[in-house]
Q: What sequence folds into this?
């Protein structure tokens, strides 16, 4: 990944021999370090560490004071390695410093603990376990060391020892998510899915963002036969661990100075799913180094992932001013403007992206989709054809081609393309959905249902794919006047993919048709929670509220929509109708 103007490898090679060995009380011999390409703040920080250790040696300072300085140098190495996890060679430098600090000050607990943590990270599990056990008697953070040691014992295959350590940690502090997660894994490995679920649910209650807990729960729910909940947790699984409260370790990444370090901290926050922290750090990185393209680019991506498209557009515009010839920036601006309904701006940026990078297949596809949305399907087809010329195996383009052909009044050609795709890839949910839509537009509902049912029979691995298929099936069943079956599919889609706002909206419409107004209001509110600017759900919710005699709530609902979309004339008309009907004592029909 491009990390801007902070090439850590060059900087850290120059820092690698600072003389942590302290047998001689004379100043260590420092290498001739070329730090010209590093942040000024990092250069100053390195120099200060060098000078501090040299001065203490020259002054023949007390051993404890020298140990602290050498240990702090080890912490800087360690912090830099945590910011760049692949640079494991930095752990060697940190370990040398920690060991020298222990030689100089044998009574301290911080340096053997950090040595154990470094060994743990390097994969030297048996020595790490020995060092963790050595500090258990002297550390003020016994729970933390118990949790670290238990994890190492578990990785060594010593489940009984790990279980005992996790239970001891919980006896000292019952609210440790890492301990509940560990016990859940042991129960799962032992075939006790019920006990595993109990422990893992408690871990998730304490640490909702822990993606590894979600993964373990997905396996547990699968073993319990709860496929929907298994899919829910699998959707949220990632590499974020159950947290361990460890200020000494957590402070390591805060040590390195400079915009490059701030950028790396922001990227680690992104990986951990802490998007608000990531945005804050990446904004600071752009302020500390305004010309750092990687900081601007990753800030924009973090804002997109955080669901803050307007701020992402501003960040991308700043990046475009720094690098007007970057096709990626133009492509992302095109996507974001399209998502905000600004198709004129979307087309401008996507056309610019294709101009800057004619062989960028995704830019071609996005431009084709934007042209189709803008009512220019004839111009869209050549973009898809060019994308296939660039990459003949880019099969999803065929789905877009088929939809555009149908829009051009050639639905049979589009359907034929999709049938060919499904013949070789029956589990392609996107192709099945596209074919179903074409058949639905031709009023061939039974045939469309068979296509979706066949795709579902392949048991899609991704809950989002299954949810989207069930949404389409629910829509067809509703059109076919089968409300009970429609609600079954739509609500299952909602459980599989809660962010699928259209499933909640359609369920609300079906509930309203059945006269189940409380359920209808709840479903429409859920759709708005997932997509607050979705006007149809807002209008439907207001109508249901008015039918229930809650005119003031209905007016508030529309007023909130007008604040989000002040130019939406549909909301203006609905508000006028509501006010008139409420005054008359009735409700809109």
A:
């Amino acid at each position: 990944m491009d990390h801007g103007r902070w090439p850590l490898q060059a900087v850290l090679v120059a820092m690698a021999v600072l003389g942590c060995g302290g047998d001689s009380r004379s100043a260590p011999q420092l290498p001739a370090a070329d730090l010209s390409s590093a942040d000024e703040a990092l250069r100053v920080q390195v120099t200060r560490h060098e000078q501090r250790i040299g001065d203490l040696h020259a002054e023949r300072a007390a051993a404890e004071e020298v140990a602290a300085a050498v240990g702090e140098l080890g912490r800087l190495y360690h912090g830099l390695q945590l910011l760049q996890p692949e640079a494991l060679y930095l752990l060697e430098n940190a370990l040398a410093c920690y060991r020298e600090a222990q030689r100089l000050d044998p009574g301290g607990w911080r340096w053997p603990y950090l040595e154990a943590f470094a060994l743990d990270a390097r994969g030297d599990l048996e020595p790490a376990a020995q060092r963790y056990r050595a500090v258990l008697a002297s550390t003020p953070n016994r729970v933390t060391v118990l949790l670290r040691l238990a994890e190492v014992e578990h990785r060594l295959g010593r489940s009984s020892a790990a279980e005992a350590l996790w239970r001891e940690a919980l006896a000292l502090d019952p609210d440790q998510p890492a301990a509940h997660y560990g016990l859940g894994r042991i129960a799962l490995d032992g075939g006790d899915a019920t006990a595993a679920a109990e422990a893992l649910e408690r871990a998730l209650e304490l640490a909702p963002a822990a993606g590894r807990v979600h993964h373990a729960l997905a396996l547990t729910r699968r073993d319990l036969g709860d496929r929907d909940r298994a899919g829910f947790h699998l959707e949220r699984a990632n590499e974020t661990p159950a947290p361990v409260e460890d200020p000494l370790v957590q402070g390591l990444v805060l040590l390195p100075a400079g915009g490059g370090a701030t950028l790396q901290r922001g990227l680690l926050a992104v990986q951990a799913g802490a998007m608000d922290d990531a945005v804050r750090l990446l904004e600071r990185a752009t302020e500390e180094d305004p010309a750092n393209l990687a900081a601007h680019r990753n800030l924009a991506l973090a804002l997109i992932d955080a669901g803050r498209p307007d701020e992402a557009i501003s960040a991308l515009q700043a990046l475009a001013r720094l690098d007007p010839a970057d096709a990626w920036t133009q492509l992302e601006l095109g996507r974001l403007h399209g998502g905000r309904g600004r198709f004129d701006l979307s087309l401008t940026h996507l056309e610019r992206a294709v101009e800057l990078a004619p062989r960028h297949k995704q830019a071609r596809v996005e431009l084709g989709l934007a042209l189709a949305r803008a009512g220019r399907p004839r111009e869209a087809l050549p973009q898809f054809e060019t994308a296939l010329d660039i990459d003949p195996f880019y099969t999803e383009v065929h789905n877009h081609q088929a939809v555009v052909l149908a829009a051009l009044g050639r639905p049979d050609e589009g359907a034929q393309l999709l049938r060919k795709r499904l013949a070789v890839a029956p589990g392609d949910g996107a192709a099945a959905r596209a074919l179903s839509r074409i058949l639905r537009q031709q009023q061939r509902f039974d045939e469309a249902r068979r296509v979706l049912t066949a795709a579902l029979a392949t048991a899609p691995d991704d809950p989002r794919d299954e949810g989207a298929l069930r949404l389409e099936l629910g829509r067809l069943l509703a059109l076919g006047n089968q409300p009970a079956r429609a609600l079954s599919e739509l609500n299952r889609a909602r459980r599989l993919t809660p962010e699928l706002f259209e499933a909640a909206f359609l369920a609300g419409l079906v509930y309203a048709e059945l006269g189940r107004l409380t359920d209808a209001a709840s479903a429409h509110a859920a759709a708005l929670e997932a997509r607050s600017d979705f006007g149809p759900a807002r209008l439907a919710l207001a109508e249901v509220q008015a039918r229930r005699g809650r005119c003031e709530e209905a007016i508030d609902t529309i007023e909130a929509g007008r604040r989000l979309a002040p130019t939406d004339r549909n909301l203006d008309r609905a508000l006028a109708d509501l006010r008139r009907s409420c005054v008359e004592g009735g409700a809109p029909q």
Confidence is low (pLDDT under 50) at residues 1-19, 21-36.
